[in-house]
Design a protein that fits this description.
Transketolase_BS (chains A, B), alpha/beta, 6-stranded parallel β-sheet, 28 helices, homodimer, calcium (chains A, B), 5-stranded parallel β-sheet, 680 residues, Rossmann fold
Amino acid sequence: MATIATLPDAADNPAIAAQEKILSLPLTEVRRMADAIRVLAIDAVEQAKSGHPGMPLGMADAATVLFSKFLKYDAADPRWADRDRFVLSAGHGSMLLYAWLHLSGHAGMAMDDLKRFRQLHSVAAGHPEYGEHPAIETTTGPLGQGLANAVGMALAERHLAARFGKSLVDHRTWVIAGDGCLMEGISHEAASLAGHFGLSKLCVLWDDNGICIDGEVSMTSSDDVLKRFQSYGWAVKRVDGHDPVAVEKALEGAVRSRKPTLIACRTIIGFAAPTKAGTAGSHGSPLGAKEADAAKQALGWNAAPFEVPEDIKANWEAAGRRSAGTRRSWLKRLANHPQKAEFERAMAGKLPEGWHEAAAAYRQRVAEEKPKAATRVSSQKALEVLVPAIPELVGGSADLTGSNNTNVRGIPVLSTANFGGRYVHWGIREHGMAAAMNGMAVHGGIIPYSGTFLAFADYMRPSIRLAALMRARAIHVLTHDSIGLGEDGPTHQPVETLASLRAIPNVAVFRPADAMETAECWELAVQRADGPSVLALSRQNLPALRQEAGENRSARGGYVLAEASGPRKATLIATGSEVQLAMAAREALEADGVPAAVVSLPCWELFALQDEGYRESVLGTAPRIGIEAAISFGWDRWLGADGVFIGMTGFGASAPAEDLFRHFGITAEAVVAAVRRKLA
Amino acid sequence: MATIATLPDAADNPAIAAQEKILSLPLTEVRRMADAIRVLAIDAVEQAKSGHPGMPLGMADAATVLFSKFLKYDAADPRWADRDRFVLSAGHGSMLLYAWLHLSGHAGMAMDDLKRFRQLHSVAAGHPEYGEHPAIETTTGPLGQGLANAVGMALAERHLAARFGKSLVDHRTWVIAGDGCLMEGISHEAASLAGHFGLSKLCVLWDDNGICIDGEVSMTSSDDVLKRFQSYGWAVKRVDGHDPVAVEKALEGAVRSRKPTLIACRTIIGFAAPTKAGTAGSHGSPLGAKEADAAKQALGWNAAPFEVPEDIKANWEAAGRRSAGTRRSWLKRLANHPQKAEFERAMAGKLPEGWHEAAAAYRQRVAEEKPKAATRVSSQKALEVLVPAIPELVGGSADLTGSNNTNVRGIPVLSTANFGGRYVHWGIREHGMAAAMNGMAVHGGIIPYSGTFLAFADYMRPSIRLAALMRARAIHVLTHDSIGLGEDGPTHQPVETLASLRAIPNVAVFRPADAMETAECWELAVQRADGPSVLALSRQNLPALRQEAGENRSARGGYVLAEASGPRKATLIATGSEVQLAMAAREALEADGVPAAVVSLPCWELFALQDEGYRESVLGTAPRIGIEAAISFGWDRWLGADGVFIGMTGFGASAPAEDLFRHFGITAEAVVAAVRRKLA
């Protein structure tokens, strides 16, 4: 099958010609192709008066070998599902990526775009931004994230190959990473995962230039990086990154390897810049006109700025078409493939037919059974319906499976023995998990979900932010969502975590109150194709508050769960486990002749999207009492200047949950008392 | 000197007796001491019906060797400055720590405290909480943090030894860590730092039990951990963790080592529990009465619950006094030491005399010079005054020195060649930096400060949270605090970061508007001994807005920077770089006959602490306009239901800063227009 996959279509002569041409280029021409990247990087950074020339200058040689002879892509269709993925983890070197996309003939990356590098509305943004250009596989810049995304992509490839077969899914993942990526902690989690899963189709080219921003890497690190990666089960190799033959040989080795491969490319940062090469000075600012000219002179480059000689352009365009035949063969295989429709649906991120009926039937069951259960357990019940109905759901937990309730009976574990499995034991690697999930989500074909404690969302936060920025569908199941977790104490008790997640644009934070809302929120999360979702779930049991199963009431973010029996004297607004307290308080108030309504607010972001009329009708004009076992930060928006908040004012404590709710004054009695004070 | 430091005071016979006794104990007695830890852990967890028996059962043998023969401490004075530090990084095994503290005779950890394990107000909280007991060196539970704290403690020891000499500072740092600690990314950053700094007095005992919560570690990790630590420059050793002789030999090796040492202690989790030992089932819940009894039987333990036979207690108490003579010798050396007062002042966290005069003189200079400068540059100017004036200030940057402006001319770099240096090149290790800083802060004698971009606060967040929980004085210099950083784009532009940090209890988030406020905020940060501070600083230049230098106006968190010329028609409330916009808008409004005041709000937390009268006088009753180049989350508190917010509504973009402020409508014109609409 492998030979079929890489054999060009014999009928497609231009493609064969491109492939033959590019594979037989003399070294001098390869070097000139690399120089084209270098010069465009210099020119664009000079023009922008801002940017990072050092990395493109240093890595152009190795990258040219990769882009022209190894990376499987067709510039005519950058979204070809079976393309190799290329991740520029050292995202500050974005001009390397943009120059390559331009030179290899990708639409949408014209010379004018390069001239507008780092300007408003340019696709050539300061760092590669997912969505700005179809060939940008992921957003990078925050160091180490791209590497970890790539591990997720490589894992996604293995899974989808198991699901759809190698004739449809058989591609590699290539990464260029810098010292920064490898010094970040996330690189440990990511590399360890890749080694554990034996992701042999993952290859990382490390720009081993010995320079960091503060000076020499040796000033801050004494790691033996190759030995370290060997300890994770990687194959490692060190080459002169400016020697295309050595790089080619190393990449061939990576293709043959049964392990993920790290290639240390010894390079000179700012290569060719006469005074700045080999120094931190070339890293993050323009070379300056004089140094730029001198660098071009050193390269023997005579063309005007933003001009590339035709022969070099022709070579690059041939590189961009090298796999065109491979793609056409693949398209033919797809056309005849029994799983064609399913594959295309999955890769497009569309949910399968029937899933919603299954979910609706489950909600009907919940309405009838009215289970008293922790929402983490209700989440598991929802997963028991959704995971079988939606084959793209692939998830797991960062070693808290039994606590997060993320597993589903009968769903096999994803492992080297069975890449088709759908349950992932992520290990104690929250950050690596979230970043790999981002990679899976942008790879396509997978809707990843995680599991950990809500308090540990902090460990994943840089990756959640990137999911939000990329609008990637990654779903985080975050249990033990308040002091309600009890004895583990303040380190494990989120108090500010809900606020801190609600603050991130594009993240939907769901905090359901009972089994019904949990089912509703899960439906909303899987349907939410344009951003990450968080499900904040209780450890402790909660009563069933909702009796009917028709409309997904959580879809509006907030709604009147129980209207007052007469003109409202108070509106009790709560989320999650505190909605039951609001209901109990309402009962006491009503019994005492104080008509009070209860508003459940499971998703602030969706509620904020409703029109003002709806929101005002829900929140009402009576005094508002907010109740959440968390700090008040952000609540003023819903409570107004006049509202009262019942919740936490600081960190929690270690004690049984009931004791804590009493100790911190988060009780129905406290709510009743607050209303009385307000009405007094 | 080393021999003097460890030689017991000859006049102190009981101490010598204790030392001799404990060092010559037969193995059977050592084992019974370990069993006392085991049994107390079993009993406390049973009593609490909650907790983690597996780790104490597994690590009791190795820990007993450490606590009785190596750890330098005196139960009579747990805050003795030159004690060895012990960090239970695997904080869930807290009963190991509490049992040891009780058995070794520490005051404040009575049997009654153990009986109240995990109950409200008990010092024996679910996880070890700094401040609950003087012998708890740091708060642990979130995995990997303790290990990284310990690196900071060991680095603090090296620095203070260089400053005060080995006769006052000569102690070791010991850690017990679990698989979770080592799988977390932070372990990479921390271990790499320790290796780079050659922290040979750091020793980590890894509870290598092969079990994680989801099952066997081999299910989720294939790392060769020892090889990995070797790659960082550590000495490594593997021993049977249940063999006290082997452990003792390994610890002796660690004491002799010129590198930090990792000792893999092969243990059986839940040791002695007949059915649960060696399984995840013993990790995180009570054994149950039957299994608990059987475990005690297997250990040959016949005492009633919470009872420890006198002979075992006597051995433990001897262990607790083993270094009493060493401490007395040290006290004598201290009494005669020329730096006694300075050492005591530094360790107590008191600022030196004269610092405030220097700071005040600097502010006077700022008032006269009225510099137009980025607040990151103003921060550097403040550091140029504070760092020489306060010897405890030891700081650096995560490889962004030139951008964060964290260095001070003439202050030497802290390195293996000069541990007395005070500038730390942390490398690209934000998380490790923040966690090590926590370790330095709780070690005492150092006020650590960091540097990175504000957007990357997310990488440090789990450690910032722990600093907040511990009320540790760690100061984070976070520059490039908005879209004002320009071309690097949305990955680097914080929009939600201010809100997310303001949400953490006990953190003071300072966002100064000019050089004067920057100086004021720095003073407040160094004075703030009971929690971490964040300084959010601009990349771009800002005008001098404050003309006078007397009172530290930032100390109240917010104040009227410019009062309206008549009865206020509007109050413009801003922070940091947007205060200048408010001032420009005010000028335009006043020129147009609309009296408007400008309120600068550099620190919300301090403003919230003011009495309501002050706050209302500052915020006024006129319509309020909030201006911050960030999202509005949290602003409603200051703006009221009726306010208007000018800021971001989502992520930023890549472009020159001025273009971005215009693009996102954060301009003086927009403020004026908002006021006009409001007044129309």
